[in-house]
Amino acid sequence: MSGSYIPFTEEMKKTYTILAPTMLPMHFRMVAAVLNSFGYRVELLDGNSPDIPETGLRYVHNDTCYPAILVIGQFITALESGKYDPHKTALIYFQTGGGCRASNYISLLRKALKKAGYGYVPVISISFLGLEKHPGFHLTLPMLHGLIYGLLYGDLLMNTVNQVRPYEKVKGSAEALAAKWTERLGKELGSGKPIRYRKVKENYSRILNDFASLPTVPRDTVRVGIVGEIFVKYSPLGNNNLENFLISEGAETVVPGLVDFFLYCVYNSLHDYGIYKFGVLSHAVSKAAFSFLCKKKNDLIAATVSHGRFRPPTDFRHVIRLADGYIDTGTKMGEGWLLTAEMLELSEMGVKNVVCTQPFGCLPNHICGKGMMKPIKERNPDMNIVAIDYDAGASAVNQENRLKLMLAYAREKEKEKAQVQAHAQVHAQAQAAEPTVEKSTAEKSTEAFASEAFAAEIPAAASTDGRG
Amino acid sequence: MSTVYSVGIDIGSTTAKLVITENGEPTLCRYERHMSQARGKLTELLRDAEGILQGKRFTAAISGSAGMGLAQAAGVPFVQEVFATAEVVKRKEPDASCVIELGGEDAKVIFFEGGRDERMNGSCAGGTGAFIDQMAVLLNMTVDEMDRASLSAERIYPIASRCGVFAKSDIQPLLNQGASKPDIAASIYQAVVNQTVAGLAQGRKIRGKVLFLGGPLYYCQGLRLRFRQTLGLDEEHAKFPEYGRHAVALGAALCIGKEYTYEELLLAVEKSADIKTSRRLPPLFDGPEDYEEFRKRHAKDTVGEEDLSSYRGRAWLGVDCGSTTTKLVLISEEGKILYSYYSPNLGNPVSVVKEQLEKIYALCGDRTVICGAASTGYGETLIQNAFSLDEGVVETIAHYTAAARFRPDVDFILDIGGQDIKCFKIRNGAIDSIMLNEACSSGCGSFIETFARSMGYSAAEFAAKGITAKAPVNLGTRCTVFMNSSVKQSQKEGTTVEDISAGLSVSVVKNALYKVIRAHSPEELGKNIVVQGGTFLNDAVLRAFEKEVGTEVIRPSVAGLMGAYGAALHAMRFSKSKILTAEALKHFVHRSTGTVCQGCGNHCRLTVNTFDGGRRFISGNQCERGLGGRRDESLPDLYAFKQSFLTSLSEKEEGDGRRGTVGIPLALGMLEQAPLWKALFSSLGYRVIFSGLSTRATYEKGQLTIPSDTACYPAKIMHGHMLELIEKKPDFLFYPCLSYNVDEGRSDNCYNCPIVAYYPELLRGNMDDLKSVRFLSPFLNLNRPKVLAKGLRKALNREGEKIGRREMKTAVKKGLAAYRAYREAVAEEGKRAVRYAKEQGKRVMILAGRPYHCDPEINHGIDKLAASLGFVVVSEDSVCDMAEPPRVGVLNQWTYHSRLYAAAAYATEHPDTELVQLVSFGCGIDAITSDEVRAILESHGKLYTQIKIDEITNLGAVRIRLRSLIGAVEERERNRKESEG
Asked: In sequence order, what are the residues at sequence separation of 6 or more whose Cβ sits closer than 8 angstroms to the Cβ of residue B334?
């Protein structure tokens, strides 16, 4: 049986600072704001110092996954920094549980703390499985409610900022706007007042409007999707600032949202009931949670679609069906089937270039990432996927070189496509008297991929729904 | 139309290439090693081309992995090298279907036919050109000599094809066993070919017209031959163009670059400020005085020397036949060094030792008599047999003996040799724990040496440079292949040789500390540390170590000779030696031939060494059988038990087969669940066909369909099993997905690892052969008979079978009963083995892994090796129920792994039992379990031994591990008895 742990007591709640790692800055800032409105003192660690992996390597088995090395390194670096009184500090970490070794992060963190002489520091794990009890920390329904909106806002901000940033007229303006909104929403969620959904929806359209009115200039970009193991997919610390690198190379990044990962976890518990028939009670809860989250996400999609300027995320029920014929949705360890489905989701969105990130030696990704590339490419020959391994020893040069190869190929294909289409256009114009409706992707302005292409996709998705 | 000039530049990891084209045709091609001074070399190449470029306008572009940063800094357009290559193909060989390009450290395969697809080696696949260079050093040949030798090869040995470091540890035993150099050279090339074909093509067939590019393929005829033979290509279809080694530069020239004049381009390159991203470390020494003080301090640790040509009296000889070097030491009565020798063994240690013995005899004259001689190291038995030495000493014991001479209270010894890192802790006068580097981080000393050579320095010069480094570059910790890329990165930034040398020293040290020893603090290592091994003769490494652990350590003057010195000290217990006399040496003859052992199904490749006078020594065998059957057949061996159970299970006819046949792969979890499915399907009226236990050929058969090269060997071998099954043409294949294993009530949950759980999903997506057969892989629950029956029935009936509810219920019942019966049989046999050991006074070894480690191809006969050393071998699953499951510090949620913890607990309760953990390379979960198992054992004063296994395992090293374990255990028992008595 597993070892004991230091509980986070009610006493501690009053005086302790709780440190949390930052995986996604915008999301996590709002999450922290929500937690703090319930009387906690959560502080986000967003250091990106090169000492972090070194410290991690010192306290964790070197063959453990890179995210564990980083997160643990980040915690211990923070405790050693002198910025916090270790006797008045607790750590919090979100984990999913399950058959992947990632479910051992908390145990590994505690072991590392002990080795580093911080064995007394309590570690709170937030997980769906409710693995541990901490008298001073409860996930209450109102808290969860706030957290969910934090995530939804985060996904919306991430989605819009990604679509504006490569084209912004004033450099940094999109990020600045996102930061402004993050702060404002964090304050709102952390005000302690009950959340009114009407207000949330208003915020959605304000955000969309704000981003839409940022001055942009047309730029030639290639769109690149990012999928992978959740930590290295999102965290700049984990993926050597992948997003910034891609943007500096003239790419527009497309990153599937965090809400999907939570939906994936809830879906799995539903699916488990189907296969294994356990957890009748939790099944009912999961079912309700699943519908609730899907509804919330679809409202967000609807808001984006009706605004018309930005590419919306995909209905999660449709994402599930995308995996069909590639991987069974019973594959639930790590990012599981969702990773495969996200690559297909990107393909469906017309994002044919994908970076599949994983920590070196990631077990689930052998199956769901690298293991699915062949079937995906077979059936979607225009997909251009590159797998990038991240770990403490991998050099950025190798990673960048592989990314450059992917980008060069992407650009060449854009060029070919543009040529073919331009050719077709000329041909069509020469032949027919009536004006052609064909639109060249070469004239890629920011408006191009808004309404026409993507509004059309939703009904298409809906019709697949009907079939399924 | 006027002539159009273009300049293409390719800066790789080791070489810089420059091509100038006139109207698309190359007029100047340069290819030179840049010795890490990429910018300087490029400037030089450009100046040389002044005659052509002066006064013209031309376009220029840079390509190559090390060219990326330079291009950015100089503002010259960068062309990704695969793209440059594609451009060349388009112009020169438009009908090529595939390009294979090997560079210094990159390997690429580009497919043109049927959708363009480019593949580059991943971060794990080591270099190729650099790898060949390194191997040539190992064989003590130039690359040219090795290439010529390879052409006269007669046989190919299997050499690991994943990464260079692995291959190296395969080659070493071959060298030590006396395999011929031409054969090894060709085998090295074959490994490169396998790596490219299997690692990069990943299931896509390489066919049609293939273009071979890059330096190594331009220079190495033998490599070309191996590629052509492996791929089955004739002259027409295998093209090795003249521009091969410049292809990328040519491609860069052909791509659209930016326009320049000669002066503009030269200025851009010269003025390019280096963008520095690499991190720097503080210098190793604060100045010459600091270094001088350091040297004086270490000069004290010496044993003294005496001149053999004037010495009179008795002497003892120690020979350490190591992996890359051979060391000899002759000592006096006081333990002073009379004669010593340290040299690369040049691939033939026997002749080296013979030569040295002759020299020693000549120097001894009739004044000095050798009274005892002992050998140690990889070639211990070979040398002992060849020269009739008095004893063989286990390497670790030899090192400890020597270290204790310098520091009787030594409690920690770290030895970094040419090939490996060894470290052991000493507690109560006995070796307490032994840690050897696993294959992936080895290559320490020789790595620095090879690096030095590749940069044009001798090892000593290179080390001396490190001492004066101002800001050593931080290269990270990880295996040498990664370090290559880190060095590449810093070369890109124009780092000085001094800083690279010092940085490498720091990396080697960190690698040893954090990767092998996994130390958290210096106190953990010990108070009295002795460091040794040839690598520590490098002052930069020694200093880096002292700085890293923050304490002063002892480096004996004979740091590189410690094994031999220890062996000599050991031999001092003899007063008369059997060693071949000077006279006998004159008639010394050594011949080695290869053969295959017929002793058992393993069919080990043996090398038979014959010496004059009919003395024979056979190496390469996994057990003692090849030597004439010393193995005690009656010793219980749970691995053998499980194997024979599985064999008889597959042979047993059961059921009427009225419903047809079902094929089940005998790999991963199926090695334990075979009885379940056999009984279940037989009851339903199917005849069950298994794929059988694996062989190397099984793996090779499926090798081309493996998408993720870093997955574990037990998973990768599954591909071959599926193909073998398909050949047997069952009506359908069955291999379920099981997120959960059987709940044995020992752990918090009963998961399978992600690989065991979901491998069928990967197989379906990556094996084209599965598309034309029926393959069932339902998700099932083994813990609830009803749910299992329902799920399986649904899966089968969906495929058109008509199985009734009751029928299925009976079948499930029978299946689960058969599974339980099997588990009980294993437990029963475990009890019998343990009882037997107790009655016969034998030691028990728990060879603790997973059920699939019982496959002989996966465990490489380690159980037999252990049995030949006198152990009763039991498995983790046979003893796990005989002990209370311990509390562990991690989440105990995998069924197989919970058995490991329980087995470790069992070992702690039984003094006659030792546990050796088998870990498959790439097993992420064992990164968690191994620390826990170690903690359980060590909390009760037990030794922890881990053996990492892969597609190829160096049994010689395993033997040393197991013998050291025995030695340490015996020494402990002696100490215990002494303290009790």
From this structure: B304
* % of residues, chain B, pLDDT over 70: 88
Q: Which residues of chain A have pLDDT under 50?
A: 1-2, 435-468
Mind listing the pLDDT tens digit for each residue in B31-62?
888 766 778 888 999 999 999 898 899 999 99
Q: Are A339 and A275 members of one domain?
A: yes
Which of A139, A156, A173 delimits the end of a domain? A139
Predicted confidence at residue A98, as pLDDT, reads 77
Rounded distance, CA B5 to CA B184, Å?
A: 46
| pLDDT interval class at B10 (50, 70, 90) | very high
Which CATH superfamily groups domain B416-553?
ATPase, nucleotide binding domain (3.30.420.40)
Q: Which of A30, A74, A79 is nearest to A56 (CA)?
A: A74
Per DSSP, A2 falls in state B
- For strands A89-94 and A17-21, give the pairing: parallel
* Residue from B655, B698, B706, B658 nearest B677 by CA: B655
Q: Which residue of B has its CA nearest to A64?
A: B927
Taking a C-beta distance cutoff of 8 angstroms, is the pair B237, B230 a contact? no
pLDDT tens for each residue of B243-272: 888 899 999 999 878 899 999 999 888 887
Q: What is the DSSP string of A74-140?
A: HHHHHHHTTSS-GGGEEEEEE---SSSGGGGHHHHHHHHHHHTT-TTS-EEEE-TT----BTTB---
A27 in any annotated domain = yes
The encoded tokens of residue B645 equal 């159970």
What superfamily in CATH does domain B5-93+250-271 come from? ATPase, nucleotide binding domain (3.30.420.40)
A291 to chain B, closest Cα gap in Å: 25
User: Is-contact B519 B548, C-beta < 8 A?
Assistant: no
| pLDDT of A417 | 83
- Average pLDDT over chain B reads 85
For residue B481, the model assigns a pLDDT of 54
Q: Is B681 helix (H, G, I), strand (E, B) or coil?
A: helix
Can you tell me the distance from the alpha carbon of B826 to that of B641, in angstroms, rounded to the nearest whole number? 8
A53 and A193 co-located in one domain: no
As given in the structure block, the two tokens for residue B490 are 């810093």
The CATH architecture annotation of domain B306-395+567-586 reads: 2-Layer Sandwich (3.30)
Q: Which of A109, A139, A169 delimits the end of a domain?
A: A139
* The pLDDT value given to residue A447: 41
Would the CATH topology of B98-239 be identical to that of B416-553? yes
A64/B78 CB distance under 8 A: no
User: CA-CA distance, A242 to A221, in Å (whole number)?
Assistant: 16
- B522 to chain A, any CB pair closer than 8 A? The answer is no
pTM of the model: 0.82
ipTM above 0.90, yes or no: no
Cβ–Cβ < 8 Å for B708, B766: no
Q: Do A330 and B779 touch (CB under 8 A)?
A: yes
Q: Which residue of B708, B775, B786, B898 to mutate against A (max A Cβ within 10 Å)?
A: B708
Q: Do A64 and B930 touch (CB under 8 A)?
A: no
Judged against a pLDDT cut of 60, whether residue B276 lies above it is answered with no
CA distance B71 to B63: 8
Cβ-defined contact of A108 to B890 (cutoff 8 Å): yes
Range of the domain at A275: 220-468
Question: Shortest Cα distance from A222 to chain B (angstroms)?
Answer: 16
- What the block records as the tokens of B938 is 């060590």
Give me the architecture of the B826-980 domain, per CATH: 3-Layer(aba) Sandwich (3.40)
Phi, psi (degrees; rounded to nearest 5) at B637: -145, 110
**Strand boundaries in B335-468, DSSP class E:** 337-344, 368-376, 391-392, 412-416, 421-427, 430-436
What's the pLDDT at B1?
A: 52
